[in-house]
Write a structure and sequence with these properties.
Strand content of chain B: under 5%
Distance between the termini of chain B: 43 Å
CATH architecture of chain A: Beta Barrel
Low-confidence stretches of chain B: none
CATH superfamily of chain A: Porin
CATH class of chain A: Mainly Beta
Number of strands of chain B: 0
Shape of chain A: globular
Radius of gyration of chain B: 18 Å
Radius of gyration of chain A: 20 Å
CATH topology of chain A: Porin
Strand content of chain A: over 45%
Oligomer: heterodimer
Helix content of chain B: 40-55%
Shape of chain B: globular
Number of helices of chain B: 5
Helix content of chain A: under 10%
Strand order of the largest sheet of chain A: 1-2-3-4-5-6-7-8-9-10-11-12-13-14-15-16
Largest sheet of chain B: none
Distance between the termini of chain A: 17 Å
Number of domains of chain A: 1
């Protein structure tokens, strides 16, 4: 019976063959609120997201959903100890309405990523490969590379769970709140948008009450496997956990340069779990100085700001309901250039491996909050 | 003194926020600025006009290629009568440039960017770049 359920899910998942790279990352709301003080308790990657370890799979069933078996293939088959496998599949139905335009219906495959990790003692090889998204019509005559892409592949060395780690390959350096939503402003506007993963050498250490990570990166040298400015630079992130692992404060910095610009970013992240009302508060504020080197010296540097604040009512197992405010100011002294967004997220976890996520967002450009652009997305998410 | 400097540095972003009074005229209308500050982050994304997707046959990732695609001219080469005219930008004529129609959502159902349109102030900078000859500087 368990095998037939697993096969049914696998077949349904495989049917989503033109899916997309909605980079699956962690749900930062789960930190503290599930009595797990760090991402690495449940995830194999130091920054969270992607493959779950055995404990994380157990948590996904027992704590998050309250029903089902969180193991790979619902426990129907267990891979050998040196191999870990998984997948993320998302499909979307929804609609949008831009200011002054007619409403538009949306239906597209959002994500179909397969994960594999091979362990050989302290060395591991992690690969995420998936079918690219199809939110919009593709160019004529697509090649296979327009459908398949590996947004993460890296070799990591770590002797044990709480030991320092080093990794080399393609991945996002640890930075920011690290929400799974690639359209969240800190990701969208700070170099962590869709398929913008650089190639990097990173390292860090995670302890009970603090963690620190640093990375140096270069732009993806293969144009047809990524997007974005292909910057080179470095990041640093330090997080301190306080108040009996119910609060965290983090400082972060990033430098990125291209042939066209230089960006210097400094920011802070705050997380607070309020056990009484079961509220998870998350916030991030970043300031970025961008100078233009390809504008003939005629363009002044601009100071930018990204802000993200959210509150989530944790009703686990089963539900998570939250609201978020976001602000992106690409040029703090330029009047009418800001983007502001307010969104509501309702996430249901009816049983292990399955999530329904309703996103409602109103987004205003130029400070015109009375004529927002509206977006609603209902995502069906299956984690293998 | 040091404390005062730190306080000033901490308050600078807030002051800048309050003093957001510059207009499009106060910003460079050079191609280097227009591409890096507006076109690249808003248009050359994974699902749109990047090398990865080339939606509509357009890859706007690099400034030189984007310039050629939008204007029909070659960046760095002096314009002359034989230059082909791009479909999207007619130098000196923003009102007849298809790019402006799409950015403003006027006379077309193809609003760009399709997720969230640009704010008017950024569209005004693009318009000024076209009006001033759409040069590749």
């Amino acid at each position: 019976m368990r095998l037939s359920v697993a096969l049914a899910f696998a077949i349904a998942a495989a049917a989503v063959v033109v899916a997309a790279p909605g980079a699956a990352r962690a749900y930062p709301q789960f930190q503290f609120s599930t009595d797990n003080e760090r991402c690495g308790n449940c995830h194999l990657a130091p920054m969270g997201g992607g493959l779950l370890n055995d404990f994380g799979r157990g948590e996904s069933a027992d704590t998050i959903s309250g029903r089902g078996d969180g193991a790979f293939l619902h426990g129907a088959w267990e891979p050998p100890g040196w191999l870990l496998l998984g997948a993320d599949l998302r499909g979307v139905l929804g609609g949008k309405q831009l200011d002054g335009q007619d409403p538009e219906l949306l239906a597209f495959p959002m994500q179909a990523d397969l994960y594999a990790r091979v362990n050989a003692g302290p060395v591991s090889l992690a690969i995420t490969a998936g079918l690219r998204g199809a939110a919009r019509e593709r160019a004529a005559g697509p090649t296979p590379t327009e459908y398949v892409v590996s947004r993460e592949h890296y070799v990591m060395y770590q002797r044990q769970d709480d030991a320092p780690y080093v990794r080399l390959g393609r991945f996002y350096p640890v930075f920011g709140v690290r929400t799974q939503d690639h359209t969240a402003y800190p990701r969208r506007h700070l170099g962590f948008y869709l398929l913008e993963e650089p190639y990097a050498l990173g390292g860090g250490v995670v302890r009970a009450t603090w963690e620190a990570h640093a990375s140096a990166f270069v732009g993806n040298p293969v144009p047809f496997t990524g997007a974005g400015p292909r910057a080179r630079g470095a990041t640093a992130y330090y997080e301190r956990r306080l108040a009996g692992n119910t609060r965290a404060l983090a400082g972060q910095a990033r430098f990125a340069m291209t042939d066209e610009d230089r960006r210097y970013t400094a920011g802070a992240v705050g997380k607070q779990w309020l056990a009484g009302p079961k509220l998870m508060l998350l916030g991030e504020l970043d300031l970025q100085l961008q100078s233009f080197t390809a504008a003939g010296g005629g363009a002044d540097a601009r100071l930018q700001m990204v802000g993200h604040a959210s509150v989530t009512r944790m009703m686990l197992p089963g539900w998570m309901i939250g609201a978020a405010l976001q602000r992106w100011a690409p040029d703090l002294t330029l009047r009418g250039s800001t983007r502001n967004a307010f969104e509501v997220n309702v996430q249901a976890f009816p049983w292990a491996h399955v999530e329904l996520h309703l996103l409602l967002r109103a987004e205003a450009t130029g400070g015109d909050t009375f004529a927002p652009n509206l977006l609603s997305l209902l995502q069906l998410h299956y984690y293998l | 003194m040091q404390r005062a400097s730190l306080a000033a540095a901490a308050l600078a972003p807030l002051a800048a926020l309050v003093a957001a009074c510059d207009t499009a005229e106060d910003r460079s209308a050079s191609w280097g600025y227009v591409h890096t500050a507006i076109i690249r982050p808003s248009c050359a994304t994974a699902a749109c006009h990047s090398h990865l997707s080339t939606a509509g046959g357009l890859d706007l990732s690099s400034p030189d290629a984007a310039y050629s695609l939008l204007t029909g001219r070659t960046c760095g080469a002096p314009p002359h009568d034989a230059d082909p005219i791009g479909n999207f930008v007619r130098p000196g004529q923003p009102e007849s440039s298809q790019l402006m129609w799409m950015l403003r959502g006027e006379g077309t159902s193809l609003v760009m960017p399709p997720d969230v349109p640009l704010p008017d102030v950024e569209i005004a900078i693009v318009e000024r770049w076209i009006l001033e000859g759409a040069t590749c500087d």
